[in-house]
Amino acid sequence: MRILVLAATAAALCVPAGVACAMTVPEVGPTLPQPSPLVVQGGLPVAQPPAGGAGSSGLQTYPIGCRDLDVNASQKSFLFHSKIYKFHQIKHWCWRKGVIYDERHAWSFDGGSTACFDEVYPDNHWTFTWWHGIAGSGDFSEERAHVTNCVFHIGDWKEFYPDVKIWAYADGTYKIATAN
């Protein structure tokens, strides 16, 4: 309000004299809260609470970020020590405020000359409560297939069931298990 009065007074003083005036009015507005700075702990960005500390406001810090992961189950030939196959699960997930979102997973197959890829089984996928009682703070996905080691793509010599499991957590960590 004071700025408006000053601007009106200055304008009134300049106009009667026919003098051109240049006025600078400082911009004043409400003080907006600034975003919390990010601090990296253990390779992951962690949002910091406002300046009063977590104890005074009751706020909790949550890690935020996204991660991509490629995990594979592979098999080598016992006789020739060459690659028979690599069966991959590719997973992407993001987390914020203790919840996983934007989760995607898929599979890919990289077969050698003696690999016969038979089928991919339907994937298993679900979310679970992992962190501070927050539903959706954990995510499980599993990709499975059936592969055979075949001779000239005619007869099957040995069967394999590659299985890749990934448990993803809302702090960017994960746990994996693979089997053949």
Q: What is the radius of gyration computed over CA atoms, rounded to a whole number of angstroms?
A: 30 Å
Q: Helix amount, in percent?
A: 10-25%
Largest beta sheet, briefly?
6 strands, antiparallel
Strand content: over 45%
Number of helices: 2
- Contiguous uncertain segments of 5+ residues: 1-58
Task: Report mean pLDDT, rounded to a whole number.
Answer: 73
Find the structural class using helix and strand composition: mainly beta
The SSE order reads HEEHEEEEEEEEE
**How would you describe the shape?**
elongated
Number of strands: 11
CA distance, first residue to last residue: 75 Å
Can you give me a brief rundown of this structure?
With 180 residues, the chain is mainly β. The protein contains two helices and eleven strands. It is 10% helix and 51% strand.
Task: Explain what this protein looks like in three dimensions.
The protein has helices spanning 2-14, 53-57; strands at residues 38-41, 44-47, 65-76, 83-96, 99-111, 115-120, 124-128, 138-151, 155-160, 163-169, 174-179. It is mostly beta strands and 180 residues long. It has a domain at 65-179. Strands 6, 7, 8, 9, 10 and 11 form a 6-stranded antiparallel beta sheet that branches. Strands 3-4-5 form a 3-stranded antiparallel beta sheet, with no helix packed on it. It starts with a helix and ends with a strand. Residues 1-58 have low confidence and may be disordered.
Topology summary:
Elements: H1 2-14, E1 38-41, E2 44-47, H2 53-57, E3 65-76, E4 83-96, E5 99-111, E6 115-120, E7 124-128, E8 138-151, E9 155-160, E10 163-169, E11 174-179
Antiparallel strand pairs: 1-2, 3-4, 4-5, 6-8, 7-8, 8-9, 8-10, 10-11
